[in-house]
Design goal:
18-stranded antiparallel barrel; globular; 1 helix; mainly beta; Porin
Length: about 475
């Protein structure tokens, strides 16, 4: 007990120290004798944070293809400069339990991280990097001390009709990304403190939507995409993806995911687009003979009003094959699809998304059928105070349907407030609940599986970063 109290007091002391640091109150001034740098050419956007959405009047249109690999946004920020922005982040989390640690009691975890964001723009290319990394110190002996890393990087090139993009997203975390950070800056590469430097937008949380898989894990997803403009209204896009999920502790299932897609987009009007896309994914598992092939064809519809609305709806048939029969089944015919909506509200924004399809299994199943719903809302309460709320639900079940189908339900709920101290400093306080239930414990193939799990977390997060340091 004394160790927990000492760690908590040390964390509070560190927080008090950093809050006393003077905040830099003004951005970099431009040299009045220097001619302004021409704005970079427009590229398909990479991401815009829904929790800190700028004024709609300052956003440029989201040019991402409807059937492409990236999530839709309300718009993008165009920076006239290349710059980098370093920072520091400290989080103190109090939680009552960990997955796989029955009766572990309350404990404290301190996270210390460095954040760096980089934006480099050329006439026909753009590089964006967001990085967070540091150490975590826990009073829970079973968890101990460790480190964590998150990186998101993108490189894009543009010619007259062609666009070529490369994305890479890496994370090494002590737990699932589903609910990690409680909606604070801890959950994002770079801390989310430089909104002008976009995130990759390819997403990766759906690969780990189960709390049952315990212990540190790392995953990496690399994606490349080529886009060709056939006409002012029509375009095609082709992509390829390779990803891995590896666990440090035994008892979980490591997987590899390789796939690709080809899509066609046609713009009906300035705001409305329709599309057709074919996806293929191949899931294989370390130490297991099973290989799953998943084929889907989706019709898609999208509506975009810059700074106001971004809507996507897609769905169609799905055919899944198994190299090793599940029971007597070697093929499963089902459906896949989903929808997402980002919507600007007064002094804030909200977003909701739903996806249904075949996934690798989150380290628990060798293949799963997954339904996932996520939602978020953020609003500026005053000039310095803002509030946010996030919710996520995921149902993972064995990939072949039956009367006694095994399934796991995971729920994460988070809410909090934040206060800025000048343009470079932010403090936030958040509460998170992570809940998991199952109808059949035997559906878990790992050694650390629990039938039910509930965790409460209280997180204090402090962020500081410099002003943008202009490169050119």
């Amino acid at each position: 007990m004394s160790r927990r109290v000492t760690t908590f007091l040390a964390g509070c002391a560190a927080l008090a120290l950093v809050l006393c640091m003077p905040a830099t109150s003004r951005a970099q001034d431009q040299n009045p004798d220097e001619a302004p740098k021409p704005a970079a050419r427009a590229y398909p956007p990479i991401d815009a944070s829904s929790d800190d959405q700028p004024s709609p009047d300052t956003l440029l249109p989201d040019g991402r293809p409807l059937t492409g690999v990236q999530n839709a946004t309300l718009g993008r920020i165009e920076s006239p400069h290349s710059y980098w922005q370093p920072g520091f982040q400290y989080s103190n989390t109090i939680q009552n339990s960990y997955p796989g640690q029955t009766g572990s009691g309350w404990s404290i975890t301190n996270y210390f991280a460095a954040n760096v964001s980089l934006l480099e723009s050329w006439r026909a290319a753009q590089l964006a990097i967001n990085y967070s990394g540091g150490g975590d110190v826990s009073t829970q002996n079973a968890i101990g001390n460790g480190f964590f890393q998150q990186v998101g990087a993108s490189q894009s090139f543009q010619w007259a009709r062609w666009q070529l993009q490369f994305f890479d997203q890496f994370a090494y975390l002590p737990q699932s990304q589903f609910g990690f950070g409680g909606g604070t800056g801890l959950s994002l590469p770079g801390g989310g403190s430089a909104p002008g430097v976009p995130q990759t937008g390819i997403g990766s949380g759906i690969t780990q939507s189960l709390f049952t898989a315990v212990g540190p894990r790392y995953n990496n997803t690399f994606t490349t995409q080529a886009i060709y403009q056939l006409s002012p209204r029509a375009s095609v896009n082709v992509s390829g993806t390779y990803g891995i999920l590896r666990f440090v502790d035994k008892g979980n299932i490591d997987d590899d995911n390789a796939g690709g897609s080809i899509g066609f987009n046609y713009q009906l009007s300035k705001e409305d687009t329709i599309g057709l896309v074919y996806h293929y994914n191949r899931f294989s598992y370390v130490g297991q003979p099973q290989v799953i092939g998943d084929n889907s064809i989706n019709l898609a519809y999208g509506k975009k009003i810059t700074g106001r609305v971004a809507l996507q709806v897609f769905g169609g048939p799905d055919i899944t094959t198994f190299s090793v029969p599940i029971g007597t089944t070697t093929k499963e015919v089902s459906g896949s699809g989903g929808a997402s909506l980002s919507y600007a509200i007064n002094r804030g924004s909200l977003g909701i998304a739903y996806n249904h399809g075949v996934t690798a299994g989150s380290g628990v199943y060798a293949g799963a059928t997954t339904d996932q719903v996520t939602g978020s809302i953020g609003r500026n309460l005053t000039r310095v105070w803002s509030a946010h709320a996030n919710i996520g639900f995921a149902k993972n079940r064995s990939i072949v349907g039956s009367a006694a189908q095994n399934s796991y339900d995971s729920v994460t709920v988070a809410g909090g407030v934040s206060r800025s101290f000048g343009p470079n400093t932010n403090f936030s306080l958040a509460y998170t609940a992570n809940i998991q239930t199952t109808n059949a414990p035997s559906g878990c193939t790992g050694t650390n599986c629990n039938s039910t799990y509930t965790q409460h977390q209280i997180t204090m997060n402090f962020q500081w970063h410099t002003r943008p340091l202009v490169l050119r």
